[in-house]
């Protein structure tokens, strides 16, 4: 006879101990206190993005009154905040809600296999610190790990890269001992990471150059929200935070809608602001006039206009050109100009990865993500008891995460009330037209569209990027839906329980 070790079973397994996973755990503890759960975190610490990235100046590109949780006020005077402040906020949330004992560090999900007979997922897990393999079973999977790879950033192939005699760094893997004092630095890229790095390094480095293939929309924003800080003195943290949050949600929506409705006017206004921030006779149209409309990609926020200040002081400059090859001394451009450098930073983006790269299967059949359609932007067609949390691309990420977590908790409560074990989204019309899951022009999204689920052409199969639409869909509307099928486990039905 042989005996097998019983597999621990949990009601919910959350993937990732970053801002989404911490939020999901808090909502579960508050709204569904009887549920057992654990957070699987592949790394050895909590905080996700805000602990992983260590490059100079790392900060949010959304205000913390909307990027923070609805249930926990942001009390710091900085509105556009740096990573240490955000990380402190997240770890306060863990401590205040007793979440730490539920986090299992160095636990990476390798695969999840659903059994309809037992109505549970069997999870294969690797201990990233020891290599040991373990198993868990779960009634629900909740993927809160975002959508990009933590172990690998995106770097395109650069001709002659091996010839460069200096140091090449990707921001996702910033060396703690990198000394750039007095060095010539070239930062390849023009997104949020690049516009953060350049002013942070300027003044310490001998000179910093932002090398971009195409320009990005860049807007100066206040580092502090004076209204929020004033309201806090009068009304206290809780009430001031709630009012500021509503104010900033409306403000963000108004800016996005204006850019969508009047793109030419928006482009002109951004250009006007940029020109005011830059030196006289600066070639604004060459370096700060993108070929696409505002908000086709995210606008890059620069608190206090720090990027423009570095340019005005001569500590940094922008070059718009294409790379021909790396050389021993730096980078040779297609124009024939050579940028000499001691350090090259490849701020060239992210690699996307859904469910942390784990393989999913349902009753022995692999789940092919591009063949699935997203239901309410949080579940996958024909995949039972699995939810995921993807935030907004046109607003603060966490605004949507909060709504998704609320809806998920309501869904669990509904199933408990009616004695259901299984929840499965099913398309009423399998021939419904579909389109990419994320309608966003950013390079990291476009490179991965063939690996992502699809979205439909109608609710509830549309992936909403509107907070006010999602308030209705996820908070106000009923849980039940003709295309959301509930059932009991086959094992329970067989014994009549």
Automatic annotation (TrEMBL):
<keyword id="KW-0274">FAD</keyword>
<keyword id="KW-0560">Oxidoreductase</keyword>
<dbReference type="InterPro" id="IPR051820">
    <property type="entry name" value="FAD-binding_MO"/>
</dbReference>
<comment type="similarity">
    <text>Belongs to the FAD-binding monooxygenase family.</text>
</comment>
<keyword id="KW-0285">Flavoprotein</keyword>
<dbReference type="InterPro" id="IPR023753">
    <property type="entry name" value="FAD/NAD-binding_dom"/>
</dbReference>
<dbReference type="GO" id="GO:0004497">
    <property type="term" value="F:monooxygenase activity"/>
</dbReference>
<keyword id="KW-0521">NADP</keyword>
<dbReference type="InterPro" id="IPR036188">
    <property type="entry name" value="FAD/NAD-bd_sf"/>
</dbReference>
<dbReference type="Pfam" id="PF07992">
    <property type="entry name" value="Pyr_redox_2"/>
</dbReference>
<keyword id="KW-0503">Monooxygenase</keyword>
<feature type="domain" description="FAD/NAD(P)-binding">
    <location>
        <begin position="11"/>
        <end position="221"/>
    </location>
</feature>
<protein>
    <submittedName>
        <fullName>FAD-containing monooxygenase EthA</fullName>
        <ecNumber>1.14.13.-</ecNumber>
    </submittedName>
</protein>
